[in-house]
Design brief:
single chain; 640 residues; alpha+beta; Butyryl-CoA Dehydrogenase, subunit A, domain 2; five-stranded mixed barrel; two-stranded antiparallel sheet; 54% helix
């Protein structure tokens, strides 16, 4: 890993070189720049795309050659911005949150939200320069056709490594376009969806106003009322947590007067901020939320006072329609949390390489290497899961495009749509929760400076906590994973995808005993978890609920391990590099309490000898990983 403008001279750990020998080599290099010890490691200015070997590797297999050629210069440009200007803009926007101006000086109600110029500049970069919202719907600058979902999320992944908060309104706008195109009538789309697809100053943003004070995640308890009069539908009631409160268009759940209770009685309505005659619609922004994180983005409380609204699709299908929007947002949430992990890892690696303490760089310290390894494992597993889910999203979209149009919101029954139905809550529930740990570890690696706002670590820790709350808390999405298994019959496509990945790995690297043995181990785990899933219907609802989070995490760990093995097999075949295999071994290490062992294990020796290569994307010979694989299999009692 090479970072430009490094404050300390860097000397890579050589094969067979001990940490003490490496420390001496770095000390020798330091004598030529003694003042470097007084500088603080600062990764500002790095190109986050050029630095990300893992993302580039994933895209090389997920994209067509033509799409990759078109995307490469734009990804490189965004990577540079994310490591430089965008990061500084994000810091400024976070330090200057939006302000609600409820009245003008004449006392007239205005409900204007004023944003710092840095937020406006970031929006301009995202929407106009890179077309982040529109790129999967229409051709955007640099592309002759809409891009695939994996490529779209690659752009977002880089952008979010600099700015997390703005990605929420951008994501909701993207999802609102999809909902309107699928369920809205042509007139509604022409008037309201088309402006959201613009990549100029006329861009309109979207939002979803769903949460109410008394319900929270229990959407069936929502009380907002929709009344039909001679002029159309009017909305009454209150929405408690409305992200992107200044949106030009909001999709709102409300219960038509006289409709049944619960989610079955809810309808989706489009509520514009301004009416066709230019007047403000009849709703008020009561106040903005004072939040722990995502401070740059306005979240508020909305009072509906007979606001004009237009039904989207059939009445009574609102909850299902909104869930189709929520599922798209859940994948976006997982991507954003994975991006936070990645940026935290970049900063932590830079600090550990360049920070000198106790006679050598922090990277030479065994416990620091172990911390960084855990961050690498979590980050690369999350990235693999997000982009595989994006590939499934692309396949499911093609199946949906081939289905006859319908105003109903029933779930498609093709295998890819059912697979997407379960993957979105799995990645949202697990990645968003684990991002809290990874960002906190990254802050700790930097030490006291990590706790200071100027460095960005504190903001990432604050922002990471919202991912597990937006679009359903961890418990809610864990229960949704169960519903996907029991109601949507998603287990078949899920386990088929895992087994296909394992089979592909053994075909790709047929001469690797390590790949074969690990594939057999993961196959046995697949059978065990599949048997547990088959028994879900026999359990009481209370027992099912108590095991829901554990099952969700087990499915994630199994699937991500299969993906890491598939990547490892490709690397072994193409370059002989066993680094990804080492990452998988680290991911499968037994829990420290599983055996009372305090002497170094094979994985520890591997990390000592090839720390820089494993942590920073270098070359690791297969023969160096084989003993660690053998030790792993022995410790967990797997057949070899």
């Amino acid at each position: 890993m090479h970072l430009p403008n490094s404050p300390l001279p860097t000397t890579p750990i050589q094969q067979g070189q001990s940490p003490r020998e490496h420390a001496r080599a770095v000390a020798t290099a330091l004598r030529s720049a003694p003042d470097a010890l007084d500088r603080l490691p600062d990764a500002a200015g790095v190109n986050l795309y050029e630095l990300d070997h893992d993302l580039r590797d994933i895209l090389s297999r997920a994209l067509s050659a033509r799409e990759q050629a078109s995307a490469e210069p734009l990804l490189r440009a965004l990577g540079a911005l994310a490591g430089g200007e965008l990061s500084e803009l994000a810091r400024q926007a976070d330090a200057h949150p939006p302000q609600l101006v409820s009245h003008d000086r004449q006392g007239n109600r205005t409900d204007e939200i004023m944003f710092h110029p840095s937020y406006e500049r970031m929006t301009e970069i995202a929407v106009q320069r890179f077309g982040l919202v529109a790129m999967s719907h229409v051709p955007t600058p640099g592309f002759s056709a809409p891009v695939s979902h994996p490529l779209k999320y690659a752009f977002w992944y880089l952008f979010v490594q600099a700015e997390f908060a703005l990605a929420c309104p951008l994501s909701m706008t993207d999802a609102a376009i999809r909902v309107l195109q699928r369920f809205g009538d042509p007139e509604l789309n022409a008037r309201y969806a088309a402006p959201m697809l613009r990549t100029d100053a006329g861009f309109a943003s979207g939002a979803q106003f769903m949460t109410e004070r008394q319900g929270g995640s229990d959407v069936g308890a929502n009380a907002a009322l929709a009344r039909l009069d001679e002029d159309g539908w009017r909305l009454h009631g209150a929405k408690w947590f409305c992200s992107n409160a200044s949106a030009d268009v909001a999709l709102v759940l409300a219960r038509p007067e006289g409709a049944q209770e619960g989610t079955a009685g809810l309808a989706m309505f489009l509520m514009p901020r301004f009416l066709p005659n230019g007047e403000r619609n009849c709703y008020r922004i009561e106040r903005l939320k004072d939040k722990l994180g995502t401070r740059a983005m306005a979240s508020g409380e909305i009072q509906l006072n007979g606001a004009t609204a237009y039904p989207v699709g059939e009445l009574g299908t609102g909850f299902s329609q909104m869930m189709s929007m929520v599922n798209a947002s859940r994948l976006s949430n997982a991507m954003r949390s994975a991006a936070l992990m990645r940026r935290s890892l970049v900063e932590a690696l830079h600090s550990a390489r360049e920070r000198w303490a106790f006679g050598g760089p922090l990277l030479t310290k065994p416990l620091m290497r172990d911390t960084l390894l855990r961050m690498v494992v979590a980050s690369e597993a999350a990235t693999a899961m997000v982009f595989r889910t994006a590939e499934v999203y692309e396949r499911a979209d093609r199946a949906l495009a081939e289905a006859p149009p319908s105003g109903h919101a029933s779930s498609p029954q093709d295998s890819d749509s059912r697979l997407l139905r379960i993957l979105t809550p799995i990645v949202k529930g697990v990645i968003c929760k684990r991002a809290r740990t990874v960002t906190s570890e990254g802050m700790e690696v930097r030490g006291g400076n990590g706790y200071i706002e100027e460095w960005g670590d504190a903001r990432r820790v604050r922002d990471a906590h919202i991912g597990s709350i937006w679009e359903g808390t961890t418990s809610i999405v864990a229960l949704d994973v169960q519903r996907a298994l029991l109601r949507n019959h998603a287990s078949g496509p899920l386990f088929d995808e895992i087994r296909a990945e394992l089979a592909c790995a053994t075909r790709t690297a047929p001469h690797s005993d390590a790949v074969r043995a690990l594939a057999e181990l993961l196959e046995s785990r697949t059978c065990a978890i599949e048997a547990r899933v088959d028994e879900l219907g026999d359990l009481t609802s209370e027992h099912r609920d108590l095991g829901a989070a554990g099952l969700m995490n087990a499915l994630y760990d199994l699937f991500s391990a299969a993906l890491l093995l598939g990547q490892a097999a490709v690397h072994l075949r193409d370059t002989g590099n066993a680094r990804k295999l080492a990452i998988l071994v680290a991911a499968l290490r037994p829990h420290p309490l599983s055996e009372p062992r305090f002497e170094p294990a094979a994985t520890d020796v591997l990390l000592t000898s090839f720390a820089e290569a494993i942590l920073c994307g270098g070359q690791v010979p297969a023969e160096a990983v084989d003993p660690a694989v053998a030790t792993l299999l022995e410790n967990i009692g797997a057949p070899r």
